[in-house]
Amino acid sequence: MRKPRDYDSELKALGHKARQLKERKVQQFGELVTATGADALPIEQLAGTLLSAVDNKDPAEKEAWRKRGAAFFQGSRHTGGGARPNARGAQASDSGPAPATGQDRA
C-alpha cells in the first residue's frame, strides 16, 4: 500500500517557493533599476516612464527597446557585471545628446 500524500505540506512548500520567487523578482528589478542608472530619476518620473512603456502599442518602438535591452545585457556580461558604465555609454549614444553633468559646465 502506498503512503498517502500530504497535500497540506506540499501546498505550504509551493507557497514558500512562490514567495521566494516573487522576492527574487523584486530584488532583480531593483538591481536592474540601479544598473541602468534609473535610480537617479525621481520616483514619479520613473513610474511615469514605465507606465508609458506598458501603454505603448507601437511594435517598432517596442522592438527597438528590446534590442537596446538585449545589448545592455550582453554588454554587462562581457564586462563582468559592471553594467553602469555600459548603460550610460549606450544611453548617450543611442538616444541623442547626453544629459548635462557638472563636468559639462565650464
Annotation keywords:
single chain; 106 residues; mainly alpha; 4 helices; 71% helix; elongated; disordered C terminus
Structurally, the number of domains stands at 1
Proportion in β-strands? under 5%
Helix content: over 70%
How would you spell out the order of helices and strands?
Answer: HHHH
Class computed from helices, strands and strand pairing: mainly alpha
Q: What Rg is obtained from the alpha carbons, in whole angstroms?
A: 21 Å
Mean pLDDT: 80
Question: What's the gist of this structure?
Answer:
This protein has helices at residues 7-36, 43-55, 59-78, 83-94. The chain is mainly α.
Kindly describe this structure.
With 106 residues, this protein is mainly α. The chain has one domain (10-92). The protein contains four helices and no strands. The protein has helices at 7-36, 43-55, 59-78, 83-94. Helix 3 (59-78) packs antiparallel against helix 4. The chain is elongated. The relative contact order is 0.07.
Secondary-structure topology with pairs:
Elements (H helix, E strand, L loop, with lengths): L6 H30 L6 H13 L3 H20 L4 H12 L12
Helix pairs in contact: 3-4
